[in-house]
Amino acid sequence: MYAEPGEMDGNRVEADTGQLLHYINNVRFTLSSGREIYFDQNGDIPAAYDIVNWQVHPDGSLQTIQVGTYDTTITAAAAGPSFIINSSLLQWSKGNLQVPRSVCSESCPPGFRKAALQEQPVCCFECVPCLQGEISNQTDSVDCLKCPWHQWPNLQKSTCLPKSLEFLSYEDGLGGTLAAVSILSSFSPAVILGIFVRNKHTPIIKANNYSLSCLLLVSLSLCFLCSLVFIGYPHYEKCLLRQASFSLVFALCVSCILAKTIMVVLAFMATRPGSSLRKWATSQISYIIIAFGFLVQLILCIIWLSLSPPFSEYNTKTKPGFIIIECNEGSFFAFWTMLGYLFLLATISFMVAFLARRLPDSFNEAQFITFSMLAFLSVWISFIPAYLSAQGKYTVAMEIFAILTSSWALVICMCLPKCFIILFRPAMNSKEYLMRKGKT
Fold first, then answer.
1. CA distance 374 to 387
2. Which pLDDT belongs to residue 46?
């Protein structure tokens, strides 16, 4: 077989190279340092490096300190790792022992979101707190998530928690106190009624219309008790009942006072010689006045409850983090019309009593009516701005406070002076004394 000379030279070179690699692969020896030297299949010596750290001394000189090694001769089956570094020996710029950060912004914790900085790299951003009602539950969140309507973020804004329910309950300190005051206060008209019943034949009780006084005391006791309807969970039935009961009971109470006021004027004018008003100064007229005043309020309440009745609702907008369970009055026009009618009755009573305050009445009932209506109107005029500015359960508490205060004003001004004379000044509770005082 014939071969070209060049071909034979090439085969000889390949054969020599192969034999050389064969011999090299079998070479393996150990240096005096303990490092083993050998050649891989490509004839390369495996790498072994010392890792050094350039450190600046206080005098400004530089020194290299070995802080670790990298040796590929150590295999996975060996006892130690191929990469070894002693971080305690490392010293960074300006003598800092901490590893410098590779980004220009810290990570955003839960409760924050990342916001890019203008004309800055992507790794540069600022952490912006989530808005009210939103959370972020991951590190470096790009967006915040809005909590459901019935939940609210925790303080860290990292998770949504159920909102607290708020209403004026009997278990609440404020609600319990108002309920106790209402119940205890309702006994005061009952006690006064007992005093009046026991002394109904005395001149001071007869002179001030015994039947009207009893009806007034019963209505005052109901005024105190009607505030209890405003306390507790505002069910649909309770929302329907509370404003209607309040308006009707107070309409009855103020109508009684209006009837007493008109009867005082009629009684004085009927005593004049030849007066034609004598036939009007009867108890039937007082009952007609009370029935008319009460009936108008009853019609207003029926129209209100028929066309736009109050209902229970969840209010999530007034107070963040709370669900306020409250009664929606249905029609604010009807609500303020009801209050306006009570204001009208009280104003008429006040004006008539004020004009009649100088009449020579035996007990000067007109003056006490004037004071009671003045106190009543002052309470409810002050109630309007307080009611409109209050929120949540304090709105209900303000109305209860106005009910209790105005009721106590009527009890004190209308009834206590009579009780004082009956119990502590019996000498003044005589026909001769009252007639003598009336003449003067």
1. 20
2. 73
